[in-house]
Every structure is written in C-alpha cells, then in structure tokens.
Specification:
alpha+beta; globular; homodimer; 12 strands; 3-stranded antiparallel beta sheet; 266 residues; disordered N terminus; 5-stranded mixed beta sheet; 21% strand
Chain lengths: 266, 266
C-alpha cells in the first residue's frame, strides 16, 4: 500500500526545479440532479478540502454528474423499443428499452457482436453510446452523454472564472474501452481552456532530429491521470490537476475524434 | 500558463483527508547506451531532485531508455530488406530497411494503408511495431521495444529494491496511437509490482447497484499521467508517481492485451 503523502515531509525538499504535477480528489460532491448548481458543489468540495483554486488549475469532471445536472437522463419506462432494438437486445441479452436509448444516441452502429459499440451523434466511438445505468438512483433510469460536452465545459469554465476569479480549465471525462487493450481508461469528451492535442511535429529531439509523427493527446492523458482518483463507486467524480503547464486556449475535445475518412478501424 | 506549484504554500493546508497523487519528473538522465547502469542513473537523478524513494512509489520509465540499456537497437546499414519490405516501403514512402526491421519485430500486419500497424511478437498492436528512430543518436540507428518488457520491469524493480531498500513498482511505457481518436497517449508495455487492471466487477456503486463491466486499465492511466511530464524532446524519460494506492502484486502488462479471439478490431 502506498503511504499517504505528507506535504511537509523533509524528504520533499523540492527546490522547484523538478517539474511536478499534483492531482487532488475533491470528495463529498453530493448526489447531483437536474438544475443543481454543479459549480457551487465543486467550489464547496474544494473549500472543505482546504484547496483554493489557482489560475492554471485543471478540473476534470466525470461526465455522469454533468449529465445529471443538465437533465440528460432518460426513464426507461418512457421508452418504446423498436423492432431493431428488440432484435439487438435479444442477441446481446440486454433490456430492449436501454438498447433503444443507445440507438437514439447513435448515428451508426460500429459493432454489435458481443457489446454494442456505436458512433454517437458527437462522433465518439464507444460502448453503448455512453448510455449508463451505474451511479444513477433508481433501477429504470439511465444517463446519456451531455448533448454538447464542449459547450458544457466552456460554460463550467466561465462559471468557475466568474465565481473564483481564477482561470480554471475544464475537462469532462468518461471511461471508454479500447480495441486491442483490455480495461477502460478515462478520456476527455469535453474541454475548455486548454489544448487537447499537443503537436510536437517540427520540434526536434535531443539529437536534433525532427519528431515526425508526434502529436500527444494531452487532454486524454489528463483525463486518464484524473481517472486514477475517480473511484467509481465512492462518489469522487471531480479531480483537480495542478502544475501541468499549458497555453490557455479554447480547443474542443471533439478535435480529438479521428476523422472517419482517416480512420482504419471503423 | 500554470503557475509553478509551491510545496509550502499556505493554500495547501491539506489535512491528509483529501486523496492526492503527485507526479515528479526526474530530469537529467544522461544518454543511455548498452550496458549503462539505468538504475543508478535514475537513483542519481532522484538524488539531484532531492527526492528520496518511498515504498509504494511508482517509477514510469520510457521504453526508449530501457531498450537502449538492453542494446535493443539496430543499425539499418546491417539490414537487407526483403521484396515484401521493399514493396511496403514503396507504398508507404519509407526506408525499406526500417520496414524490414518492423516486419522482423511483428507476428502480423494489422493495417498497411497509410501507416504500418502491426501486432508485435509480444502481442501489442501499434504503429511500426514500436520501432523508432527519434531520440537515438545517429541517422541509421533505430530502437526496438524491449524483448520482454515485463521481465525488464521486474529486473528494474528488483534492482531498485536492492539499492534503495524501498518497494518501488515499475512501469515501462511507450506512446501508442488509437483507432477513433487522434494523438498518442502513453501506455504500459511492461509492469512489475502493481496491478495493471483494477477489476471493480462485483463492487457496488453509491446506490448499491452492481458495477457490471468496470475493469480499469490503471497501468495505462498511470503511464498516461506520467506521459504529461515526459516531454519527448527534452530528455525526461522517467517520472515518479507518489500517493497512488494499490496492492503490491506482480502482474505483467501483457495481461492488458485483449485476447485476439475477443477483439472485434483486428
């Protein structure tokens, strides 16, 4: 078990020369429902954790609570499944109404062999179009992805700026699976205030050679880092990242989506 | 621009109740060549950064320097390309000798449309089988992935234990592309001393509902977090992660590879 870190430990006589990034979980976010003031909940959680926002901080917020705050939830009792949804549901052993919601949220089915992998209306390729029944009260309610996660992130960043006076970047994240590799990782589905891709093309390595194909998906790496502290079952859906240096910019997370024409795996 | 963090800032009166993870870059790793004592280089870099290892720390080490220390490099002048390599190279506008090295490192070509995506002998699916010419001195030398990155990680972890007295987990990382999403992210290709997948199946969310499909690829999230501080061109290929809680375990990073039979995208 890793020891809890001690901020005042003498083993950390870090002179400031060593680049350091810190990740703080902001626990104690209450159950979120439509219309709840999410920004206030996050500011209150930070205050309880004795953390004051600083310009340059990055807040990674789990999609689930953004969706709930925006009312992007669906009651399955209100859904009448189509024949297509019923057929898919039979094959996948799923609730036909839940499958119908996935179809409603999708522009295209990518695979339906063992799991339903679709392309959402935003263009994200993921299981079940991001429709999820975990961490939702009640047995017949599912959450959708936010309608426009980049716009949600922009609104949240503006609200944090207004209420704290600090320029805080926002990433809205969800856990997606990957081909070829097992397990989910947290990725960025919405972003505001920071670059989502870091283009190193044209820069040179330490031997002076051009780095030819290097574009780093830093918003996804930031989301993944935050994922380490977002324990799904324990209600800590917000993580603050401090010390990561970036040039403030509005760049949507949808920029990360690989254009279909260039994608060899759709 | 994010402000540099100040360890003694009063805005960090963190009581210890807030889970916190810290990432330190260990700069000043010298150019690594075959037979160089990598563990000593890392210990020296940590000492210069005034960081003392603690049990539970996780070292993420870029594949490149492990490969160099192990002599997993190839001089292209020694390579005679096959007709297949020449044909692929013509189509992809690449050096036929470099393509031959990629074929040598691969058990199967997955795609060769715009880029050469192969399955390595380890089972990793990535561009160019991980063969890379950046951050290598000389124009005709390429690095390979380590022969057995899990074994390399295990050896390194044992050496850190021996020399520091601390139980330090090791992840060997490389930057891989993904279908559907642009940009590279840092992932784990070797691991020792920590779980690579965190299986939350059977655990319950805050509403008591079973989390059905949740396995988190935590070694990849740790590698991605470290990737934020591994600036490719600036020679900081080692990142220390502190404060992430895990149960020590030997679990190979190859466990992350999705079995071909279950993979819908090969």
């Amino acid at each position: 078990m890793a020891k809890p870190s001690n901020l005042r430990s003498s083993s950390f006589a870090n002179s400031g020369a060593t680049p350091e990034v810190r990740l703080f979980s902001l626990p104690g976010i209450p159950e979120i429902h439509a219309g709840r003031d999410l920004v206030k909940c996050v500011i209150d959680a930070a205050r309880r954790a004795a953390i004051r926002f600083e310009s340059g901080d990055i807040l990674v917020i789990a999609q689930k609570i953004v969706s709930k705050a925006e009312g992007a939830v669906v009651r399955l009792t209100a859904i009448k499944p189509s024949p297509k949804a019923r057929s898919l549901a039979g094959r996948l052993k799923k609730d036909p109404r839940a499958v119908q919601v996935v179809l409603n949220e999708s522009r295209r089915i990518v695979r339906s062999d063992h799991v339903l992998i679709t392309e959402t209306h935003h263009g994200f390729v993921c299981a079940n179009a991001g429709v999820d029944h975990s961490n939702v009260p009640g047995n017949d309610v599912v959450t959708l992805l936010p309608r426009n996660p980049d716009r949600s992130a922009k609104k949240l960043a503006a609200a944090f700026r207004r209420r704290t006076g600090k320029r805080v970047a926002v990433i809205i994240s969800d856990t997606f699976g990957r081909p070829w590799r097992l397990g989910l990782t947290n990725v960025a589905i919405g972003a505001a205030g920071l670059p989502v891709l870091l283009d190193l093309r044209g820069s040179r390595d330490r031997h002076g050679k051009l780095l030819s194909a290097t574009i780093l998906a830093i918003a996804d790496e930031l989301a993944a880092a935050a994922g380490l502290l977002m324990e799904k079952s324990k209600g800590s859906p917000v993580v603050l990242i401090r010390g990561y240096r970036y040039k403030p910019r509005f760049e949507p997370a949808t920029r990360i989506i690989r254009p279909a024409a260039e994608d060899l795996f759709r």
